[in-house]
Amino acid sequence: MRFLILGATGTSGILLVRKTLELYPDATIIIYARSPDKVPEDLKDNAAVSIIKGTLEDLDTAETAVQGVDVVLSALGPLVKWYGTNHPSGNPIATFYAHLIDLMNKYNVKRFLFLSTASSKDPNDRHSVKFATLVDGVKLFARNAYTDIVAMGETARTKGGNIDWTMVRVPVLTNANTEAVAAGYIGDEQVGVTLSRRAFAAFMLGEVEKREWIQKAPLISDS
């Protein structure tokens, strides 16, 4: 197996790389990162890991990264701060995903799992006061992040017809030391409003083989 991992320099992304190495010890992992220096030294030194430096705008470099890949895993998410610099306008992640899906189709890469949030709605969702409050807060204080998340989901649904994508929607992420996870839809009483980053990584890697959520958008939380 050959994995391309995006967003691998953040806390969730690093855990995603580590879980991939744990479950697929014979796999090759390609990390595509704007700042390779943020990758931990032990991962840089791992013979199974290769790092390609590139940004969301470096489409030629991204094309090189996609070639020969079996699965794309993405922990990319909007930059959300309640103060100071916020996520840029123009939906940069969704724009990149549109190009990425084109590249995946070009090189016959079929599996794509990516991070999202409750801001991206699904027809199976039902009303939930808790989640509505969370989403309203993002809309109000981090509008650019909200619009990019929404656009990411729309991009997968409109362009990903030939791709086995799974949009893994998460609530509030924590650093709890647990991989236990519940998966469902907003308002179905199976899912809550917190999720450990370790559980996110475990769910992503488990879904690679289980394939229970093809072209679906589960909301996952601590169980």
Automatic annotation (TrEMBL):
Residues 7-208 form the NAD(P)-binding domain. It holds the Pfam family NAD_binding_10. It comes from the Eukaryota. One of its GO terms (molecular function) is oxidoreductase activity, acting on the CH-NH group of donors, NAD or NADP as acceptor. Belongs to the avfA family. This is NAD-P-binding protein. It comes from Gymnopilus junonius (Spectacular rustgill mushroom). The lineage of its organism: Eukaryota, Fungi, Dikarya, Basidiomycota, Agaricomycotina.
